[in-house]
Amino acid sequence: MQRLAGSTKSFPFQPDKVGLLIAALISYAALALPFATLRANRIVQGESISLVNSMPGLAVTCLSVVLAACVAIAFFRTDARLRLLAALVGLSTLAYLIGLAATHLTPDGNSYARVSPASGFWLLLAGLIVMATDAIARLKPKPVTRVILLVLVLLVTGIVLASGRWDDLSIIKEYGSRRDIFWTEAIRHLQLAFGSLLAAVAVGLPLGVLCYKINRLRAFVLNSLNIVQTIPSIALFGLLIAPLGWMAANIPGASEIGIRGIGMAPAFVALFLYSLLPIVSNTVVGLDGVSGSVREAARGLGMTAAQRLLKIDFPLALPIILTGIRIVLVQNIGLATIAALIGGGGFGVFVFQGIGQTAMDLVLLGTLPTVILGFTAAILLDALIDSLFLKRGRST
Length: 396
Description:
Blueprint: H1 2-9, H2 17-32, E1 36-39, E2 47-49, H3 57-75, H4 80-105, E3 114-117, H5 119-139, H6 143-163, H7 170-177, H8 179-213, H9 215-230, H10 233-250, H11 264-288, H12 292-300, H13 305-335, H14 348-357, H15 360-395
Antiparallel strand pairs: 1-2, 1-3
Helix pairs in contact: 2-3, 2-5, 3-4, 4-5, 6-15, 7-15, 8-9, 8-11, 8-13, 9-11, 10-11, 11-13, 12-13, 13-15, 14-15
């Protein structure tokens, strides 16, 4: 009995708790949910089509084998590298075959019919992404490795787009009819997100230093910025319309430099105000965390206050400050979408147009680039922050 118990304990194929959920998610999506939706045009209700009926038999077999392998690898306690490889193969296969399904389902010579990924596809995508994320978390890769993985994913996505495999998907048809406007709004989205961040860094870092040095100022500033954070974004956009409109009408040259009651100006100011609290508070926390003995050693070497701030305090506090900047950037990329409600532009233009026209693929045309942009920014800044923490740990 003891021998039997010992052999059971060492049995290599034991269920994995997280993998059990992933396997159930993938299985349910593949077997019970529609894989694609075929519509007569872009706005009418469509017909849900299962995975088996959405593409040629060989492609169905190929995807089924890949998904079955992913389910088996996720279910059992397998090596994290194998789990990551399986997830990446599954994602690549899924991305390629959804385009094949669109081509297969679109009637010949019909330019009005639209094929979109259905709930089964999105749930399969979510399950494989969770599987890949779980594997990466178990591997604990170095920051450079995480960036390389991100570049590879973006590169594969770009190759599939360039190959034309997705051309029959409804979202790509929406992009094709709005190609010039898409890139104009993409640039506007980046201007809002990154421009407000740069302005907040330019103001927030000196303000954070002042708050660190002057305790009475710290309480007033942080409490005031906390109040700004409690105002809903749409409400803040609306509150800024009146003062900015007055400035445009009464201050010479204001309208010429872009200050108006609606448009990019109120959106930019609102994003700037939302960005201040994380930057100011993280600057204070980062400077507070610098060891007093390090400051005393720098003072003993004859460094001035400015030299200590620039050469000692800021480098040591930089990982914490960058954490605040990461929060702001991801936040601003998402909030810039709402700027379209007041004429600020950005990817939100497609989101709200799609909602108004009940065209969900147009909504996705604005949503997916926003998600990808935020995800990319988060990974890159996380890698930079982790590398700085590692560097500081080795130096200490």
